[in-house]
């Protein structure tokens, strides 16, 4: 192999001569490169202990005298690859892997050892690694999870697996793979070249209801599957998906249920269930009743969650009529069934259901679910409106008693005969108040009062022409003083509370009596309205300002009803276009302000409010004062409110302020004001006189008060508040109150104010001047 790894040395040189005809004919020479090499090859994964020899680099300038030096650079130079600088031998220092890097690009040159000058231009060469089969195939997935429909034909594609080999596919068979199945026979197979997995059995064998899951192991081997190749494996989990190949089947052929006859329509009777081996939508089914004497009495619905058939009551049951029923119920799939594998088996299933009816003591049963009756509104009291009828549905045929639920007839307009169920009137009726009356009649078994039932009765009152028509609203208009005869001044209409079958028809006319007939007339328009017209060309507001025109309104029903409505016409001054300019004072007040009745009402309200205010003030003055203490037995924790406002310093009548003047002048026999005094039980206290001193301290006064309260049996409990209001006598200025002054203003000497400083000197001059004036 050594001669293949060496580069080729091209010896010799080629001369070219070129004469420059322009400058003296100098001879030029061009030399081609003196050395070149091809690529080297190196085997990967070298396991030897020595460096791996790659080849030899040699220049044609190397004469073997040691003057040349080989230099290597590029990928891995000096680390992976080294060169002997003297002879150009190239070695690999490390173990290399082609899968990490397939080739290395290096550059080499030759320099003079002494001068360092390059003798050869730098040239690039490649070191390629030879591949060996050192990598096993690897699948793209460690685990495949796939599915295929059950009952698939043989050869149906399931999935494709793919493996890769890191070895060189261009060199040998190291990366040429072959697939095989090592687990999964005989159900599946795999194509050796493509890795496509296919079913290996026919539809009759691939049945999900027999086996649903399969685990297949696929093997990939390099070296084209030959002996000595490396292998890799993967696992494929294959699930057979469901197809609708199984019809539903009842678990039993006969079902039996029993229900009471009182069960209401729509109530479930029982459940039946069919089983389908398929899954999901393929297992969905529906039930229906296809036969039996209970075909019209019962229904069946499908529970979407449990796929059960629920039998319900379709019509009211009666034990006395039918005591049992038989139903034929059919079940089938909602999805189309694949019948290829059923053979002669039916696609539907049938079951028989027997339902027994149990007797129940039932309340009376009315002949109808509701009754509608009619009666004229002017029917006399006691007139029969209609009748209801109920009977005991049980075999006992117990008598029935009737009554009206008074909560539905609060005005007690009707009553019912307790024996025969006849409904009659007990009070006069009026259709205009209520056109319909809805009552409930109760039927009760005579022997079993708890067995009751009720029925609604709707009574319609038929209209009778008992109301006269009236004006639709209050009509008031005006007429100009200067007008023309036949001028329409107002259109009137009427309303009637009655409701005739053919609709309303009203007739209008003037009343036969009265002097107004020469002033106005009424023209019936024939459409339940009429126009009021003038019969004169001029009116005088000063002569007569208001006309009251009576209009007779008659209906067209029988018996005929009529009434008279009054139209108020005011005479006004108008402009040339007929627009009102001025009417009488009454008309202006009536149209622009409040009516007389409204003014009277407002005045009465004001008077009543004034009377209430005066009465409240009088009561407040006469209000008695509450006692200081409500109970003499309980005075602890009470707040005493006196509600008295003092009158200032000159008010000496509200309280005894002697204590403030002179504590020694307190009356010894004075009793408490917040309790009832009793001389027999509580004798007067003897007080110790306080020594009279000019500089008596407040402390002595307080101590005396404390002693008095401690020895007083009528004093409040221990947690009451005692107030000692005493101004001491030790003040230099003494009291400033005029109540405590011992002399009048005229006897005072204010000269001492001058001794208090410059600020009081002006005050002393003022009062001193007043005294001088008084003396003079």
Question: Can you give me a brief rundown of this structure?
Answer:
By secondary structure, the protein is mostly beta strands.
Written overview of the protein:
With 776 residues, this protein is mostly beta strands. Among the domains are: 33-130, Cadherins (Immunoglobulin-like, Sandwich), CATH 2.60.40.60; 138-241, Immunoglobulin-like, CATH 2.60.40; 249-358, Cadherins (Immunoglobulin-like, Sandwich), CATH 2.60.40.60; 367-462, Cadherins (Immunoglobulin-like, Sandwich), CATH 2.60.40; 470-582, Cadherins (Immunoglobulin-like, Sandwich), CATH 2.60.40.60. Helix content is 10%, strand content 33%. The protein is built from six helices and 44 strands. Strands 37, 39, 42, 43 and 44 form a five-stranded mixed sheet that branches. Strands 3-9-8-5 form a four-stranded mixed sheet, with no helix packed on it. A four-stranded mixed sheet has the order 11-18-17-14, with no helix packed on it. 20% of the residues are buried. Residues 1-36, 585-592, 628-636, 663-695 and 772-776 have low confidence and may be disordered.
**Mean pLDDT across every amino acid position:** 80
| Total DSSP E strands | 44
Number of helices: 6
Q: Give the C-alpha Rg.
A: 66 Å
In whole angstroms, the N-to-C terminal distance is 164 Å
CATH fold call of the domain at 470-582: Immunoglobulin-like
Largest sheet: 5 strands, mixed
Shape: extended
Structural class comes to mainly beta
Function: Cadherins are calcium-dependent cell adhesion proteins. They preferentially interact with themselves in a homophilic manner in connecting cells; cadherins may thus contribute to the sorting of heterogeneous cell types.
InterPro entries: Cadherin (IPR039808), Cadherin-like_dom (IPR002126), Cadherin-like_sf (IPR015919), Cadherin_CS (IPR020894), Cadherin_Y-type_LIR (IPR000233), Catenin-bd_sf (IPR027397)
Organism: Hucho hucho (huchen)
Membrane topology: Single-pass type I membrane protein
